[in-house]
C-alpha cells in the first residue's frame, strides 16, 4: 500500500531495531546479528527484503528496489514476487539504447532500433510490471511504471518507419520546417512535467531512488528544449547530446535500483547500499541510533 503512515505510528519505532515486544515477537533483524558491530554494518540502508519485520504496524523504509518512495508495510506475506526490478530493467535498457543514439555514439542518428525495444521491452513488459505493482498495492510504482511503459509505446508509434505516418504528416508542403520538432518538443515537455511530479515524491526517499528521477527529469527537459529550439527541421545538437548523457545516467540508476531489489541474503554475498536521505524517517532513525551508541560507549 502507498505510504500513509505518519511519525505518530508506533510501528516506526520497531523498524530494524532488533528488539522484542511484550509478546516476545518483535522486529528482529534476521539478516545480521544484534551486536553493535553488526548494527553499524547495516546503517548504510540496504535491501529491506533481507530483513523480516513482524508486527502489523511495522513499516519498511523507502526503497527504490521496491519502487517505494516512503514507508510501506512488510511484503513477506504477499503472494506476488516483486515486479519493480523487472520494470526498472525494462526502462533502463530501452533508455540506455536511445540515449546512446541521442549522444551520437558511433555516429548513429536514426533511432529505428529503439522501436523494437520500445514496443517489446520498455513498453509492453514495463506496462505489465506497472499492472503487477497495482496488484501488490504500490500506487507510486503502478503509476510510474505503467506511465513510462505507455511513454515507450507512444514513442514507438511515433518512430515506426512508414507505419503510422506521424512524422510524414508534418512534412507536407504547407507545414513549417520545424512543425514536427515543435510538436515532439511539446510531447517531451509533458513527460518532463510528469517526471517532476514523481521527483517531488522521492525527496524523503533514498539517494539512489532520487537520482533515478532527477537524471530522468533533466533528460526530458533537455531533450524537449533541443526539439523546441530546432533549426531547419533538426534538433539542437548540444541540448540533444546533453539530454542523452543524462538519459544514460538515469538508465544506470534504474539498473542500480533494480539490482538492489533483486539482491538479498538468499542470492548475494552483499547488499546494495541505497543511502537514505538524512531527513528521511530512516535517516533520522539511524542518527538517533548512532547517537545512542556513542552515549553508551
Give a short overview:
This protein is mostly helical and 297 residues long. 54% of the residues lie in helices and 0% in strands.
List keywords for this structure.
mainly alpha, 9 helices, 54% helix, disordered N terminus
List the helices and strands and how they pair.
Layout: H1 36-41, H2 84-102, H3 112-135, H4 139-159, H5 166-169, H6 179-200, H7 207-228, H8 237-262, H9 281-296
Note the total helix count: 9
Quote the average pLDDT: 81
What is the element string, with H for helices and E for strands? HHHHHHHHH
**Helix amount:** 40-55%
Radius of gyration: 22 Å
Q: Provide the β-strand percentage band.
A: under 5%
Can you tell me about this structure?
By secondary structure, this protein is mainly α. The protein has a domain at 84-262. The chain is built from 9 helices and no strands. It has helices spanning 36-41, 84-102, 112-135, 139-159, 166-169, 179-200, 207-228, 237-262, 281-296. Helix 3 runs antiparallel to helix 4 (139-159). The protein is elongated and about 75 Å long. Mean pLDDT is 81; it is low at 1-44 and 49-55.
